[in-house]
Write a structure and sequence with these properties.
Shape: elongated
Oligomer: single chain
Number of domains: 2
Number of strands: 21
Low-confidence stretches: 15-22
Mean pLDDT: 88
Distance between the termini: 61 Å
Helix content: under 10%
Structural class: mainly beta
Largest sheet: 12 strands, antiparallel, barrel
Length: 370
């Protein structure tokens, strides 16, 4: 073969390789009014599709406004009511190139499989095939997938009386797997809150407020809604004469409601509690904790988080306690939100001259950790 022939052969092979690796064309939406939009399909549910346009950015479009949708990449469709487990075979999950016409998802799988029509209302989620495969097989490390909030508040007064008050809180949750179409496996949570204040005045004793709470919990799911858990909690409340309360508990939980916009958990446990007071004898208690936790996403990006628990002691029925809290956050700028909340704690066995109830009202700035 001459040099010219070799050169021509190399050019043809290179051209074929470039064409074979050419970037696929954009995805396209055709609206019911005939308008078209080019971009990239992101994901979809049974009610809407998320589409990324180079010009308009990320859009969430109701399926009722879509006449046709065509994608170049392959997707996976998880039907409503289907819950998968990680490492589980995905052979029964429809996969292929996506086309939507007349409110029906048309998947074209690799030959020799036949096309599979699925009504859009029957789909729980439609995601990119690569993302689907990663979610099914990827085992994240312990430092991955943490979400939560960090809140700070501060008040200063300079006058005859000088007053300084600081409040802070951090809440972190790691739920695995993170995709809601997979059955839950485990959940880890950490919470810490602190309220500290001083009021000083010449020739007058300093008045101090110091309250903190810290806890950690690990849940292991048996089913999609039933889980076992273990937790430890530490509390200090100077205003109630409580130097330190240690709580160690284990029990059963039930996720009563789990939707995209709200979740409700109920828990019951047996616990060991050690109370150390500034005045008076320490207490060792065997009791139970009955608790609920409700979280809801509201309109305009607002969220409402509410917790309540009651702790009876079986070896000393007079040493019971309860706790209730509520927090409302409202978006301000990007990940920052304004927050307002209340925390009410009740301790039935404080030292003499200390009140049983402690109430806190807080205003602060919250940063979302994602």
């Amino acid at each position: 073969m001459g040099n010219v022939s070799k050169l021509a052969f190399l050019i043809v092979c290179t051209g074929a390789l470039v064409l074979g690796q050419a970037k696929p064309g954009p995805d396209e939406i055709v609206f019911v009014n005939g308008d078209k939009l080019a971009g990239q399909f992101v994901r979809a549910t049974g009610t809407a599709v998320t589409f990324k346009s180079d010009v308009l950015g990320d859009l969430t479009i109701d399926w009722k406004k879509v006449k046709e949708l065509h994608t170049q990449q392959k997707v996976a469709v998880i039907r409503k009511g289907v819950k998968l487990r990680m490492k589980e075979s995905a052979a029964g999950v429809p996969q292929g190139t996506l086309a939507v016409e007349d409110q029906k998802i048309q998947l074209t799988p690799a030959p020799p499989q036949a096309q599979q029509p699925i009504p859009v209302s029957d789909a729980d989620v439609v995601i990119d095939q690569a993302a689907f495969e990663k979610a099914m097989t990827h085992m994240p490390s312990f430092i991955e997938d943490w979400k939560g909030t960090a809140t700070v508040g501060l008040a200063l007064v300079e006058a005859t009386q000088d007053s300084r008050t600081f409040t802070g809180a951090i809440s972190l949750v790691r739920a695995e797997p993170s995709e809601n179409w997979l059955n839950p496996s485990n959940r880890t949570a950490f919470d810490f809150s602190e309220s500290y204040g001083e009021v000083t005045q010449p020739a007058t004793p300093t008045i101090k407020t110091s309250i903190f709470h810290a806890d950690g919990q690990r849940d292991e799911y048996f089913t999609a809604s039933l889980f076992a858990f273990g937790e430890g909690a530490f509390d200090h409340n100077y205003s109630q004469g409580l130097s330190l309360q240690q709580t160690y508990a284990g029990g059963i939980g039930w996720t009563v409601i789990k939707k995209a916009n709200q979740e409700l958990d109920l828990k019951a446990s047996m616990s060991y509690i050690r109370q150390q007071f500034a005045v008076g004898p320490d207490m060792n208690l065997i009791g139970s904790i009955f608790a609920e936790h409700y979280n809801r996403k509201l309109t305009h990006g607002m969220t409402f988080d509410q917790k309540a628990s009651v702790t009876p002691a079986w070896n000393n029925t007079n040493a019971y306690s309860w706790l209730a809290s509520a927090l409302l956050t409202m978006p301000v700028y990007k990940r920052f939100s304004a927050s307002t909340g209340v925390i009410d704690t009740f301790l039935n066995d404080p030292p003499p001259k200390f009140k049983k109830n402690s109430f806190q009202f807080t205003l602060g700035l919250t940063y979302a950790i994602q």
